[in-house]
């Protein structure tokens, strides 16, 4: 009988045979999975079932076979039994060409043999060998031989059934068989062009040309415990003399018997006690890595002088060993000593800290200002942080529960904040969980500083964060990224910076508020998941190169730029042959990833380790949106409201002062409305020396006081604006405009 079926039932099939094609072949790659329904003694190939013209999936996935009902399969077998295959000339041809005028029918295996096209999408169409879709090659494209980008065997650059061309890459050719095997392995979520990684356009064309892409996860993702070995950590003490009585493999976390792995190779370990390590944060190198480092010679072309190490004259030993640099390229943004401070910072550090507090308490009464606002805050920045950082404050309060009553005293020189802070944080008895007590050693009359220990601590952290913002550890105008400073890396300063920021947050200090979005994302989500932007490049030469590549309008100009930047691209590992203008975007992306992320891998990891202090980084990763609002830089437009909130009014008993206070408020409003020759930025600079509000506010806090003088006076050291008391608003406005306009701008 034809296909093993009787004339009476048309369905008397032995289970090894597919009821639709009559073959015993069990080749899932070619015909799909072969499945048998034991109850009805029914066997089918999955692809034969999908491509049959007269059957639809009307059941659920667990009904019948693959969701096709048994009754429907019987009807389709009976229908096909009347149709003769145009290829093998036997009955049972269940598949027909969808071309309206074509009457050809065939079995699925016969169609494969005759190079028919079966589309595994939408309504599962089938095309015979005459009406099947084909890929067309433009006449101007060269013909010859190329490599299949999967198996690397040679293929003819002529589209055919066996050879397919990529729709997204000009010179990408594939064997159909190679593509089909890859699609079955990768699944719909990972199947993409092997050259450019395009997914949407590539999959659409491959489905049109008959490649079956199953809706499943990749095979390597489905394998149980496929990456189990990656989760195993080396746990063995390799020092010559192990002191642990329990054995070299014993590991007890948070104790002296915790095993610390080599910071370089990770394949050697030691108990903390066996190598006299004081804490798990202390770095350790195995003997093999020490020998390699000793033979490697110089780490960088130019050594940078750092006072951080040379000024530690008290003989204390740093608890953290110094990690060596990983790369030889010097960051252009890190030139100069780490401790070199900007003029603005120097002014704030050298100001007379006692001057403001010498004012009697009665002169520090806050006045109500109408119509702008009745209740003042210290600054718009602080007000914004209170609004956005409520969640962060709650989280930090939970972390602060780790801080105990035991105090650690730090002697701080405000004029050399970094060296004294580093010395204090590295002293042997310092612990992040102790309450920090600050004593400023450079104030002539310490009692006049004095309020509470909390205010001293807050002032210390404020000065420290300001210094970090302007240090060579970070680069960028406002939103900061990490630099590559080899001396700082060697001295472990990136770790110390992260540690200081974490301690500042938990102990009630200000947040840094100068992180770029890219830096924050690298810390929270990992550098491998971050795509940097051109704005993250602080190096002018690199930025200019990226711009020239990005905005090249012809292939010749693109190649010229690449040739001019040959050494830079080669050193960055981004040098590649370019055959089309559209490839410039991939090149730009490679440069940005190298310069902004890969180049600073070592500083970033060291900085991350520092932020783990007191569990801060873990909370950042748990609540990224909350911490982003207090750690990342935000641009704020100056307004009359902003400036008015920024300055605290110092009141006296002079009755004329009340009217002048209204003049001050009205003047800010006129300036904001453009009714003055000066700007709000000019006013801010006149009083403080800065054209914008720093991310952490001003120290000391900006103030306004009124005096019987003819013209306003700005004291940039004290951030104090002294205004004239006048009888009319016109006199006040003229005096302000004249003085501020005539004051030289500080560039």
UniProtKB/TrEMBL annotation:
Pathway it works in: Protein modification; protein ubiquitination
InterPro entries on file: EPHD, HECT_dom, Hect_E3_ubiquitin_ligase, PHD-type_Zinc_Finger, PHD_PHF7/G2E3-like, PHF7/G2E3_ePHD, Znf_FYVE_PHD, Znf_PHD
Protein localization: Nucleus
Pfam family, one: HECT
GO cellular component, one term: nucleus
Principal subcellular localisation of the protein: nucleus
Alphabetized UniProt keyword annotations: Ligase, Metal-binding, Nucleus, Transferase, Ubl conjugation pathway, Zinc, Zinc-finger
GO molecular function: ligase activity; ubiquitin-protein transferase activity; zinc ion binding
Domain PHD-type as annotated: residue spans: 15-132
Stored PANTHER family: G2_M PHASE-SPECIFIC E3 UBIQUITIN-PROTEIN LIGASE, PHD FINGER PROTEIN
Full protein name: G2E3 ligase
């Amino acid at each position: 009988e034809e296909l093993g079926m009787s004339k009476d039932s048309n369905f008397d099939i032995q289970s090894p045979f597919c009821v639709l094609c009559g073959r015993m072949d069990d080749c899932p790659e070619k015909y799909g999975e072969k499945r048998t329904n034991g109850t009805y003694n029914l066997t089918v190939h999955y692809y034969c079932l999908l491509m049959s013209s007269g059957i639809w999936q009307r059941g659920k996935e667990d009904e019948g076979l693959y969701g096709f009902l048994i009754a429907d399969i019987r009807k389709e077998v009976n229908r096909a039994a009347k149709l003769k295959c145009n290829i093998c000339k036997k009955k049972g041809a269940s598949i027909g060409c969808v071309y309206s005028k074509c009457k050809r029918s065939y079995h699925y295996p016969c169609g494969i043999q005759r190079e028919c096209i079966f589309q595994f999408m939408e309504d599962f169409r089938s095309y015979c060998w005459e009406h099947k879709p084909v890929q067309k090659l433009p006449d101007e494209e060269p013909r010859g031989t190329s490599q299949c980008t999967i198996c690397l065997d040679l293929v003819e650059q002529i589209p055919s059934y066996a050879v397919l061309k990529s729709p997204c890459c000009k010179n990408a050719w594939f064997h159909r068989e190679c593509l089909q095997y890859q699609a079955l392995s990768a699944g719909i979520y990972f199947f993409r062009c092997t050259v450019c990684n395009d997914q949407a356009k590539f999959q659409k064309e491959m489905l049109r040309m008959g490649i079956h892409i199953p809706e499943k996860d990749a095979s390597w993702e489905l394998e149980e415990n496929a990456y189990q070995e990656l989760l195993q950590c080396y746990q063995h003490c390799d020092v010559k003399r192990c002191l642990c009585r329990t054995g070299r493999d014993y590991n007890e976390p948070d104790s002296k018997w915790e095993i610390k792995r080599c910071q370089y190779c990770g394949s050697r370990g030691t108990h903390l006690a066996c190598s006299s390590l004081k804490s798990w944060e202390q770095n350790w190198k195995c003997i093999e890595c020490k020998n390699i480092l000793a033979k490697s010679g110089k780490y960088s072309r130019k050594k940078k002088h750092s006072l951080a190490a040379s000024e530690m004259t008290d003989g204390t030993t740093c608890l953290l060993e110094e990690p060596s640099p990983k790369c030889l390229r010097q960051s252009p943004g890190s030139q100069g000593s780490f401790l070199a401070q900007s003029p603005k910072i120097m002014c704030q550090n050298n100001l007379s800290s006692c001057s403001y507090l010498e004012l009697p308490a009665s002169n520090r009464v806050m006045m109500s200002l109408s119509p702008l606002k009745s209740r003042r805050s210290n600054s718009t920045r602080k007000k914004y942080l209170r609004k956005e950082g409520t969640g962060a404050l709650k989280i930090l309060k939970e972390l602060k529960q780790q801080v105990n009553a035991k105090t650690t005293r730090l002697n701080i020189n405000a004029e050399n904040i970094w060296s004294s802070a580093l010395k204090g944080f590295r002293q042997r008895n310092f612990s992040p969980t102790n309450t920090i007590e600050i004593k400023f050693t450079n104030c002539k009359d310490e009692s006049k500083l004095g309020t509470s220990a909390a205010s001293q601590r807050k002032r210390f952290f404020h000065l420290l964060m300001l210094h970090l913002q302007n240090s060579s550890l970070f680069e960028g105008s406002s939103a900061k990224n990490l630099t590559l400073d080899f001396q700082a890396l060697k001295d472990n300063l990136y770790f110390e910076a992260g540690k200081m920021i974490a301690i500042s947050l938990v102990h009630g200090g200000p947040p840094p508020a100068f992180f770029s979005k890219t830096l924050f994302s690298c810390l929270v989500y990992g550098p491998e998941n971050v795509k940097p932007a051109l704005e993250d490049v602080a190096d002018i030469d690199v930025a200019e190169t990226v711009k020239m590549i990005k905005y090249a309008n012809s292939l010749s100009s693109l190649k010229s730029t690449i040739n001019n930047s040959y050494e830079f691209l080669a050193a960055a590992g981004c040098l590649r042959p370019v055959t089309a203008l559209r490839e410039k975007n991939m090149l730009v992306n490679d440069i940005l990833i190298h310069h902004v992320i890969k180049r600073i891998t070592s500083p970033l990891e060291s900085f991350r380790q520092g932020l783990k202090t007191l569990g801060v980084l873990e909370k950042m990763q748990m609540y990224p949106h909350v911490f982003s609002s207090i750690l990342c830089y935000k641009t704020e437009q100056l307004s009359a409201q902003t400036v008015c909130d920024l300055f605290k009014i110092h009141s006296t008993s002079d009755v004329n002062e009340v009217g002048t206070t209204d003049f001050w408020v009205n003047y800010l409003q006129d300036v904001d409305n453009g009714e003055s020759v000066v700007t709000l930025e000019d006013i801010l600079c006149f009083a403080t020396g800065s054209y914008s509000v720093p991310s952490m506010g001003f120290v000391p806090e900006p103030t306004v006081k009124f005096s019987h003088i003819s013209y306003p006076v700005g004291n940039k050291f004290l951030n104090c604006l002294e205004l004239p008391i006048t009888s009319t608003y016109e006199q006040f406005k003229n005096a302000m405009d004249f003085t501020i306009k005539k004051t030289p701008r500080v560039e």
